[in-house]
């Protein structure tokens, strides 16, 4: 088909992206396929992935260690925005897509490729996130999605790959589709497609079952600087270490599981299971610290911004003008969101039990009911009269 001469392919080492290599060359006339695997903390052995790509026919196989960038430039801004899609999902998988798209575009520019490609199907969210992000970063690049067009079943895809000498290891087939990175795991398909089916314990890898969690609570102090988590129990940590350690602590207490029906970008509902221990705890703690350090009107207005922000990330609009404008608002609100939040972990719960900040707007002398009360109670009467005056006038008119 001659759609492109040189292509950079987002590569995971799975069936679809492996088959994409010969398919692009044989069916679409691509001369050279360069694969790019992004290390986002998924725990895969990336050495064998490079070797496999070359065996599948790739001219070159690249691996990008993007773990720190992933947390600093994508996860932390989402935490500052308390980003929860449909008020539940903290976007652990969605946040990886604009970063992978950026890596693809950069590699295409470096190697002189005229197209980038991915292995997404036409049913999911990731195709939208990749395509739109690539369009935003380099509108001249072609975006190829072979799996969206080839119309092959799983068995046919494997058979096609075998024709070109690709070996797919025989293993016990899992009915689940799993995506993992440093922020968490998403699990879907198989028996989970029935919304009434309880998720079996075997699908979880980052969080313990409640029965297996410690019988004593554990307390943890999370330090924030301008809305960004910087320490655990007073110990400063780099972004990757902080997320990793918090995943371990929260997961050990069974914290971080989500089971939800989600509205996908393409208009269908999907049953999704997520394990996101650190991310959920950090958003909860960060929101609590904001309640101590931001004025009421800013906090309330920011909630509406957060919902929009979450939808932009979910729907592939990370590199959009609106997202950029909202970033400016959010960054301004974070200037005084520094301090510490104390969290109690116990039997599947992460409960916030304390918070403090040098920028605290909580005034003890105004809040107390004790003898140190400095609030002017007499001022309340006049305030209530003025505050309630429109309602009083309305009521009088209605009754007359």
Automatic annotation (TrEMBL):
It catalyses: L-citrulline + L-aspartate + ATP = 2-(N(omega)-L-arginino)succinate + AMP + diphosphate + H(+). One of its GO terms (biological process) is argininosuccinate metabolic process. Pfam families: Arginosuc_syn_C, Arginosuc_synth. Its main location: cytoplasm. Keywords: Amino-acid biosynthesis, Arginine biosynthesis, ATP-binding, Cytoplasm, Ligase, Nucleotide-binding. Its EC number is 6.3.4.5. CDD domains: ASS. The keyword Ubl conjugation does not apply. It is found in: Cytoplasm. Coiled coil: none annotated. ATP binds at residues 10-18, 38, 119. InterPro entries: Arginosuc_syn_C, Arginosuc_syn_N, Arginosuc_synth, Arginosuc_synth_CS, Arginosuc_synth_type_1_subfam, AS_cat/multimer_dom_body, Rossmann-like_a/b/a_fold. Pathway: Amino-acid biosynthesis; L-arginine biosynthesis; L-arginine from L-ornithine and carbamoyl phosphate: step 2/3. GO terms for molecular function: argininosuccinate synthase activity; ATP binding. GO terms for cellular component: cytoplasm. It comes from the Bacteria. Residues 176-394 form the Arginosuccinate synthase C-terminal domain. L-citrulline binds at residues 89, 125, 129, 177, 186, 262, 274. L-aspartate binds at residues 121, 125-126. The keyword Signal does not apply. Residues 6-166 form the Arginosuccinate synthase-like N-terminal domain. Homotetramer. Belongs to the argininosuccinate synthase family. Type 1 subfamily. This is Argininosuccinate synthase. It comes from Hydrococcus rivularis NIES-593.
């Amino acid at each position: 088909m001659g759609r492109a001469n040189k292509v950079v392919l987002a590569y995971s080492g799975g069936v679809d992206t492996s088959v994409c290599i010969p398919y692009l060359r044989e069916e679409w006339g691509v001369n050279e396929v360069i694969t790019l695997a992004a290390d986002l903390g998924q725990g895969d052995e990336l050495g064998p992935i490079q070797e496999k790509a070359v065996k599948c026919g790739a001219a070159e196989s690249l691996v990008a260690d993007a773990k720190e960038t992933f947390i600093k430039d994508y996860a932390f801004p989402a935490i500052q925005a308390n980003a929860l899609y449909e008020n539940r999902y903290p976007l652990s998988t969605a946040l990886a897509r604009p970063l992978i798209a950026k890596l693809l575009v950069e590699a295409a520019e470096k190697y002189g490729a005229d197209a980038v490609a991915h292995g997404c199907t036409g049913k999911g969210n990731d195709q939208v996130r990749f395509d739109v992000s690539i369009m935003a970063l380099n509108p001249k690049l072609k975006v190829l999605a072979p799996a969206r067009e080839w119309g092959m079943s799983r068995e046919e895809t494997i058979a096609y790959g075998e024709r070109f000498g690709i070996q797919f290891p025989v293993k016990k087939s899992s009915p689940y589709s799993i995506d993992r990175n440093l922020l968490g795991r998403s699990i879907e398909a198989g028996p989970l497609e029935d919304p009434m089916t309880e998720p079996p314990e075997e699908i979880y890898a980052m969080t313990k079952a409640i029965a297996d969690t410690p019988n004593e609570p554990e307390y943890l102090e999370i330090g924030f600087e301008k809305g960004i988590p910087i320490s655990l129990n007073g110990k400063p940590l780099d972004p990757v270490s902080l997320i990793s350690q918090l995943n371990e602590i929260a997961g050990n207490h069974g914290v971080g599981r989500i089971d939800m029906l989600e509205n996908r970008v393409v208009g269908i509902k999907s049953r999704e299971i997520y394990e996101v221990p650190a991310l959920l705890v950090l958003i909860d703690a960060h929101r609590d610290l904001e309640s101590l350090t931001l004025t009421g009107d800013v906090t309330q207005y920011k909630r509406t911004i957060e919902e929009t922000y979450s939808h932009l990330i979910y729907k592939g609009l990370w590199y959009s003008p609106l997202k950029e404008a909202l970033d400016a608002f959010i960054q301004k609100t974070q200037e005084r969101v520094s301090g510490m939040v104390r969290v109690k972990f116990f039997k599947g719960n992460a409960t916030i039990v304390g918070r403090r900040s040098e920028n605290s707007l909580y005034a003890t002398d105004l809040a107390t009911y004790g003898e140190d009360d400095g609030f002017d109670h007499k001022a309340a009467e006049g305030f209530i009269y003025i505050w309630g005056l429109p309602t009083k006038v309305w009521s009088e008119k209605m009754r007359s």
